[in-house]
Amino acid sequence: MPMSRISLLKGRSPAYLRALGDSLQRAMEEAFNVPPRDRFQLIHQHEQHEMMIDPGYEGGPRSDNFVLIAITIGKPRSTEVKQAFYQRLVALLAESPGIPSEDVMVVVTAAQGEDWSFGGGRPAASLLGIRS
């Protein structure tokens, strides 16, 4: 049950944003075994002066196509699984909406079941092993 925050420069079309989210979801389904309906994505578009990104640090060159994807996952994944996810994600984003791999930065953070509530003030039952 990942939750993703996607940050990029303003000015992209709704179709571009949809393609970005769809590619991210597909990569998570394939590499992380996330169910198709388990989709929680927030897209944040920023003005140029609101994104201070070094164009060459640990990679690059980065362009105005740069996207930062911060994902909070519910169960930890191995290093190998995360590496496969990163590779699949950049391949899918290159296909649609056409983001070069050097313009994709990803941060994955794990949170325990007690750190999630999907509504009603109830903890995330699936992560706590609670069956209703």
C-alpha geometry = globular
Strand order of the largest sheet: 2-1-3-4
How many strands? 6
Work out the radius of gyration: 16 Å
Which architecture per CATH? 2-Layer Sandwich
* The CATH class: Alpha Beta
Number of domains: 1
Q: What is the end-to-end distance? A: 18 Å
CATH superfamily: Macrophage Migration Inhibitory Factor
| Strand fraction | 15-25%
Mean pLDDT: 91
Helix-and-strand structural type: alpha/beta
Order of SSEs: EHEEHEEEH
SSE topology sketch:
Blueprint: E1 3-9, H1 14-32, E2 41-46, E3 67-73, H2 79-95, E4 104-110, E5 117-119, E6 122-123, H3 125-128
Parallel strand pairs: 1-2, 3-4
Antiparallel strand pairs: 1-3, 5-6
Helix pairs in contact: 1-2
Describe this structure in words.
By secondary structure, the protein is α/β, with parallel strands linked by helices. The protein has one domain (3-128): Macrophage Migration Inhibitory Factor (2-Layer Sandwich). The chain is built from 3 helices and 6 strands. It has a 4-stranded mixed sheet with strand order 2-1-3-4, with helices on one face. A two-stranded antiparallel ribbon has the order 5-6. Helix 1 (14-32) packs antiparallel against helix 2 (79-95). The longest helix is centred in the first third of the chain and has 19 residues, at 14-32. The model has no long low-confidence stretch (mean pLDDT 91).
